[in-house]
Amino acid sequence: MQSKRMPMLSALPLPVLLIALCLSGCASSHRPDLASLNMRDTLQVLAEQHHVCGVAVAVIRQRQLASIDSASGCTPAPKVDANSVFQAASLSKPVFAYAVLKLAAQGKLELDAPLMRYLPQGYRHQFDPLKAQPSELVTDPRLAAITVRMVLNHTSGLPNWASGPLRFEAAPGTAWHYSGEGYVLLQRAVEAVSGQRLDQFMRAQVFTPLGMTHSDYAWSERIAPNLMPGSKANGAPRAGLALNEPNAAFSLHTSAADYGKFLVALLGDDEILAQLSASPVPVDAGLGLDWGLQWGIERDRDASYIWHWGNNTGYRAFVMASVRTGDGFVMLTNSENGLELAQPLAQKIVPGEHKLFQSPILGTDMLNVLCNTLHICL
């Protein structure tokens, strides 16, 4: 779930922001030589450099789990291992999409059917995705045009999040626009079809079959002992969001071991892989970026990569894999600096130019810039 703290920056003088941006650009140009280091040492160097208190990475080689390593860049160092649980943020979406495609394969859901077919009582939009009220029964007739596929490839026309009445960004099916709201709409349809709450559905459809014993779409006593607390970009504790209600867009709690199992299952399923990349939606032609069924797609000559990032308060995550070789990785962190590790890890595990890291989709987190350069950690 994207942070809503950005308006706080308006109180800062423009010169301060410009200096911070300049310093950030200078700082980001210095990267350690990681080529000669093993994965464990690589993670330790990166975690210390970027004040990441907890990071765990599962590496996939040729569609098999090759290793799981972890590190801490804070003192005292918290215990981090393969079963440490993190908020996966938007990495929740690919796992949910996998379950949706399984449901479609079972004939219980049609990808090109209007979602409202499965919600005859209508769709109630929550002004705050973490709270049941206030809410509204959506009456916009454009809602009837949204299909399962449109939600999965982010062409539903819905905004990322709406803190008041739901308003469309575009007509359904006409343009790519990243939307968490669309995922809540699809979640309600899946719950209606399955007769189960999201967390129960995901446990039966994905977690139990894949042996993901440290995963849940809501906080629970089962995962609480292994849950890593979130932290700011400087390693200081960050009071995170209490995700007590399941949300398909951002509430997955999981471990590197578990998400690695999911990635192995995905990369080993030729049918679903083909569905993910069929008829992609263009996102940025200059960078070779498209969007498939809930995965970003980067194309580079004869290579194709699937990827996604996650951004929750106190947590950052990233996943990437080569469709051709079956090599990839998932990175989970309990730090708002966590995405700083994504590009160097990608270069080490799936070497290539990877222009996706130039994309504005990933954005510039000004709160992190201020914390990392001027030590103003809000």
From TrEMBL:
Residues 40-345 form the Beta-lactamase-related domain. This is Beta-lactamase family protein. InterPro entries: Beta-lactam-related (IPR001466), Beta-lactam/transpept-like (IPR012338), Diverse_Enzym_Activities (IPR050789). It comes from Massilia rubra. Gene3D superfamilies: DD-peptidase/beta-lactamase superfamily. It comes from the Bacteria. Pfam families: Beta-lactamase. Residues 1-27 form the signal peptide. Keywords: Signal. The keyword Phosphoprotein does not apply.
